[in-house]
Amino acid sequence: MKIIIMGCGRVGTQVSHLLVKHGHEVIVIDHDTNAFSKLGADFKGKIVHGLGFDRNVLIEAGIETAEGFVSASASDNANIVAARIARNIFRVPRVVARLYDPVRAEIYQRLGLTTISSTAWGAERIVEVVTHNDLDVLHIFQDGGTTMVRVEAPARLNGRRVTQMNIPGEVSVTAISRNDQTFIPVSGTEFQEGDVIYLAVIPTAMVRLEELLGIERS
After folding, report:
1. Between the CA of residue 176 and those of 11, 49, 95, 182, what are the distances in Å?
2. pLDDT at 70
3. What is d(CA 112, CA 27) in angstroms, rounded to the nearest whole number?
4. Cα of 175 vs its chain's centroid, Å
5. What is the CATH number of domain 147-213?
6. Could you report the per-residue pLDDT of 47-86, keeping only the tens digit for each?
7. What does the alpha-carbon distance between residue 165 and residue 175 come to, in Å, rounded to a whole number?
8. Could you write out the DSSP letters of every residue in 46-83?
9. Span 167-197, pLDDT tens digits
């Protein structure tokens, strides 16, 4: 995936290195040229000097073909503006905004903008949200312990029981939407074509869930 990171501070640097490590194309934007030194001489991504909410800077960074955008600067206002530009103007599929203020983070979450407000677990959780692009992330609980995701059941699940998808303490099928009705399944419920599955997943089990669903990592 091609992912743009706005902000080369503590979180932005960690996210950038993690994404490069996972094989993604990473472009880092920062208005302070000295900040790029945090990335180190061996950083294999691209750097762009400028403001992350400036249209020309974003175009230089390649936002028109970007598949993910992370605003992780030290300014909540800048992060919100940049994230909204990326999502609403350039239609980037995956946009995540790091915010210091948890109240503002919750407000923008309700408006449909994925936000992260904890420095301690922000880098790891951002990487999970932006790279698991076949899983629709609905909500990330603030303590980072569980993520709620939604996915259309692949053909390989047809006829299989819910109990075969559940992994105690890691993955749990919480609901299924079928024929415009949503219900809570029991262990013996069988998946059918066209089902939309809602699952609770712990962060370390995201890759395992993709394997169960037959999703190939990008």
Report:
1. 35, 46, 26, 5
2. 94
3. 24
4. 22
5. 3.30.70.1450
6. 999 999 999 999 999 999 999 999 999 888 899 999 999 9
7. 12
8. EEEES-TT-HHHHHHHTGGG-SEEEE-SS-HHHHHHHH
9. 998 999 999 999 889 999 998 999 999 899 9
The length of the chain, given as a count of residues: 218
CATH 3.30.70.1450 segments of the chain: 147-213
Give the H/E segment covering residue 183: strand 181-183
Rounded to whole angstroms, how far apart are CA atoms 205 and 7? 28
Q: Angle CA(161)–CA(162)–CA(164) in degrees, nearest 5?
A: 75
Contact call for residues 118 and 162 (beta carbons, < 8 A): no
Alpha helices by DSSP H, the chain: 10-21, 55-61, 76-84, 102-110, 119-131, 206-213
* CATH 3.40.50.720 residue spans of the chain: 2-131
